[in-house]
Design a protein that fits this description.
alpha/beta; single chain; Rossmann fold
Length: about 200
């Protein structure tokens, strides 16, 4: 998977590249998310991280694809913003330490298999404190039998979170608000969701 993404970023442009995501822009613009320390998990070429830095956040971006981080650093330099971009694995972080005020994930957790998702949650929760917000965007639908077979055979990791999986994984420690999404779409992907979660006090 790591090599696949490295080559994709090195020699092409993945379809999710193309500016900061609309939910993030809206939450920052309307004042729901205020400047503080932020970590972009699976930052890709850095669009969301750069947007946050442009709006007063102190930002770290992490991705396991070297080519993505190289492009992110170049883009931040061209845009005149200071972002710390790091090559690291969100399921086994070694170069990132928290806590952070905000964590952003657009399409990273849903790309992992069950074991990777367990490790991700363990790593991510350790980077939070009471009041930390997590903005999570994911594909979300119930996988069909053929999709389950596909993810078991091919090195995709995962395709989508199951409905209710975000609550199952984070609900014990976070207040969870579903802020956007669509289900039962025609074609593929068949659904997506965005969540804004807030770490509860101990």
């Amino acid at each position: 998977m790591r090599l696949l993404y490295h080559l994709w970023y090195r020699h092409g442009t993945p379809p999710w590249v193309g500016g900061p995501r609309q939910e993030l822009v809206r939450l920052v613009t309307d004042g729901t998310l205020t400047p503080g320390s932020a970590l972009d998990l699976g930052c890709g070429v850095g669009d969301n991280a750069i947007f946050l830095a442009q709006h007063g956040f102190t930002v770290t971006g992490v991705d396991f694809a070297d080519a993505a981080i190289e492009r992110a650093r170049a883009k931040a330099h061209d845009d005149g913003v200071d972002v710390s971009f790091i090559v690291d694995d969100v399921t086994h972080l070694r170069q990132v330490s928290g806590p952070f005020d905000l964590l952003v994930d657009y399409g990273t957790l849903d790309d992992l298999d069950d074991r990777g998702r367990d490790a991700y949650v363990h790593e991510v929760v350790a980077l939070t404190r009471p009041g930390t917000r997590i903005l999570l965007w994911c594909f979300e639908w119930t996988l069909s039998p053929w999709e389950r077979v596909t993810t078991a055979i091919l090195p995709f990791g995962g395709l989508a979170l199951a409905p209710g999986e975000v609550t199952a994984r984070f609900g014990n420690q976070f207040e969870i608000n579903h802020i956007a999404g669509e289900q039962h779409l025609r074609g593929w992907p068949r659904g997506w969701a965005a969540y804004l979660m807030t770490r509860r006090s101990a």
